[in-house]
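Recap from last week: sequence in, structure out.
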Amino acid sequence: MIQAQKGTKDILPEEIQDWQKMEQIAKEVFSKAAFKEIRTPVFEATELFARGVGDSTDIVNKEMYTFEKSERSLTLRPENTAGVVRAYIEHGFSRQPQPVKLWYKGPMFRYERPQAGRQRQFHQVGVEMFGTADASADAEVINLAVKYLNALGLNNLDIEINSLGCPECRKNYRNAIKEVLKPYLSELCEDCNFRYEKNPLRILDCKVDSCKKIFEKDEVQKVILGDFICPDCKEHFEQVKEYLTALNIPFNVNKLLVRGLDYYNRTVFEIKSNNLGSQNAVCGGGRYDSLVETLGGAPTPAVGWAMGMERLNSLTQKNEPVKTDVFVISENKAETFKIVDEIRSAGFSAEFDYSFRKFKKQIDKASKSAKYAIILMEDEIKSNTVTVKNLDTSEQVNVSRQEYLKSIKI
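Predicted structure tokens:
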């Protein structure tokens, strides 16, 4: 038997309403803040991610699904910020009034070990805001993330923020990190040795216990916790913290927070749920002021975030299965099709027994799947009436064929 591939999962009919709820709440929350939905292709030119995400990241080096077609290298999107930036440039969004505020939802693809809430085909919802460098934009998107999570019923959250500074700040910090870790290179994991040359700040994101112990050494801690950001970046970060405080959003500053993608600068943040295990991040994002220019556009400040929808789904309360409004019970096929069409045309959902089994079989099926039963047996057909039964209360009335729709109270 052919089965779904490892790291992929069918979203079944009984689960889909929970996904639709997440998507509907996203639309409602983001629309109130004037964010507009954008949908980009699920595959892009490989170069987009190599340049945008960064060739030193695990995503580009280990996790992308890349294939050749007509001598072109294409990649299933491992994240959507680069694709949204490409669309921003290609469709001339820079000529529109700024800021441009966009949100998205959809599948992403990464080749990594499946675990709780993480698949090889997974789904993300996210926002991107282009055209303003002010700290108010950083606070706006963080606030929007919190509002969305709260609307899903998630309130037990930890918010961590940090500032990576501008390119010059990062350069100084990167050099200091390399210098203090140089004596410990032989003790760092293989990935950290690679990162040491390519992007030393990524070392701080390592989850290997032996590497974490090195970070805890006094001389390393002194550098990690040191103040390397310039006065402008420091002022920007202070404003972010001031706005979050004004919004009554509690937060912690985490100097180890660097995020896994190369394009971030200044503000980075993560939101964690205390209802998950060690892999407890539900939202990650930050500012990426150089990415639009890196991908061929004009210099454009930008900030955004993404959330994994599988993890959100694992945390949210599940809805009761949705019942059909009306189940038609009859042994007359022609009359059944006729009345079902009438009910659907009136705006209700309606179903019937395609096998036209005996009355008891039909009523049993109706009781499990519908709110009302419309009974149209031979007596009702002869008298031009129908029997309307409320399946929750068992109350039923016999009404004329012309008036029966008024008895359905959904």
